[in-house]
Amino acid sequence: MVEFCKPAAGKKILELREVSKRLKSGDSWTTILDAVNLDFYQGDFCAIVGNSGSGKSTLLYLLGILDSPSDGKILLDGIDTGALDNRELAKLRNEKLGFVFQFHYILPEFTALENVMLPMMVAARLSKAQQRERAMMLLDQLGLAERRNYYPSQLSGGQLQRVAIARALANQPLIVLADEPTGNLDSANSKIVFDYFRKLNQETGQTFLVVTHTVGFVQDCDRIIEISDGKVIHDRRGPIASSESNLSPGGQPA
Amino acid sequence: MILFSAWRQIRHRKKQTVASIASVTIGVGLSIMMASMQLGFENDFVERIIAVTPHVQITSERLRPRPELGRDRYELSRVERIRAFDKPMTINGAGFWRETLAGLPGVTDISASYTGQGLISFGNKDQAVVIRGVDPVQENRINGLGDKLRLGRMEHFATAPNGIILGSGIARRLAAKPGDTVTLIGETGNRELFRIIDLYQSGITAYDNRTLFILLKNAEAFFGASGPNEFNLKLEDPNSAERVAALTRSLTGLESRDWISENENIRGELNRRRMINLGIVGTIFVVSAFGITNIMLMSVMNKKRDIAIMQAFGVNRTALSAIYLMQGLILGLLGALGGMLSGAVLIYALSVLPVSFTATITRQGFPMVWAWQLFLIPAAVGIFCGLAASSVPAWRASRFKPAEVIRNG
User: Fold this and answer.
1) Which of A109, B46, B269, B295 could form a disulfide linkage to B16, CB 3.0–4.6 angstroms apart?
2) What is the pLDDT of residues B36-62, one digit of tens each?
3) Which CATH superfamily is domain A12-237 in?
């Protein structure tokens, strides 16, 4: 039975209405997400969990308007994203969303500092000096101030993921979407990432939607959405018991 | 952001960037060099032609026979023609025409001359020649006769009583040298002795092998003519020769030849060469453009995850395309700069290279031309080439679906 979450106190910032996603494989169509309805509120700190192939990453890409639904509507901060063209969608992503993926995808031709500055350069709201100052501040918060002028090839995996996080936060997004952000990190780096997300969530009220398999991460989230076979099977606030989830204690799918 | 990103990307893939720039550089450099050489040869050819032939030459040959007024005049007319044949044809009213022609717009100089056929004899050798009777001062103004004399004895030629200047080819065939005395034999068998003052070398072998110069008054006496049979015009703009010739034809009723029409066949050959060069250069540019497209497409495919992440943080499709177009533009610009530099080096190297041609035209080194158009046009083509080559990668980069790329790695 689907358990729906009670609204949080914050403003509704993201809505999914009867959202489906079908992908063509060969001659047939496969339903990845099936008529999903979800609401997200400002300040949500939400884990999206589910088996591999359950549709959770697809859900995240739809939430991040990186992909468009086959059916249904997605409203981001009250804006119907289906009515926007490519340019407007890109602007919306730049202004309101921040992405962190399992692989850092740090652009190799830029330094750590420049990578963090890139979304700000796209937005062009701040002066060059302000962009630099903010990027340095973010890197400093993530313990990378000393390495700001390093190129990606000179940084470790954990450092690169922290640069990616700083880049995701560059434009002070309304929502941070993370797909397995700690999937390639050791426990120490995972903790740094989680603690930083939590701190930001509490201090700035930014919304975090995190697809994860890491138990520690899931257990400390305020809201957990579980997806199975393209449907939301659990959506509730409060910690989830490991026996209820499909997670192994080591943080990997069972 | 676009320029910054484009510059960083091309700086990051150094080897491919160097290869792309080199391909444009080669295209631009070679086109500059080939265009310079082509123009150099053309100009050289024109200069040499102009140097030995007047821009426009008005001859004594009438375009139409004089109008016949009636049958009873027919016999008389025939008689007149026979008479005219017996007596060398000259330009009637030479003084009047000389003044009229000199006053035509665009005419900067005029000379009168008498040209006829004859034989030259030296030792036991004879040769058919074109005998040109000239006024040394006037002729020098029209085609720089003095500059083409081996010993530079122009003044001596003007004052010597029976001086002759032989084309260098004639002197070689007869084994004659300055100071020797040669015999000129006219059409009627008349003979006259001349002393070789100097040798003439225009660089155009056909001319140097057949033409000799004597003073106009000597020529008139030798041919028994009462005046010149040619007027030679020098024009302000040599390219207006056809127009001026048409004007003098209608004005005088006399045959007028211009250097452009007289050398039409060679100009056709030059144009053909120009087309061949254009084809070669075009092929080089197409090959380099394909090279750049290939390199950039590889880069786009290798960077598709980076492109997807750029889309994720808000770079739109137009900006993504612009980043790759900017890369093409930068590669084209750098290639064009390199090409202009290498083109300049090639032009200089070829212009000082000691090379001699022994065909129709003889000269030392390649006749290269320096002109800003020679640099700017290939450079513009090189830049366009870089830009055009990047259009396919730019389009490809803007077509990625970020979710698909990230999902599939």
Assistant:
1) B295
2) 888 888 887 777 777 778 899 998 888
3) P-loop containing nucleotide triphosphate hydrolases (3.40.50.300)
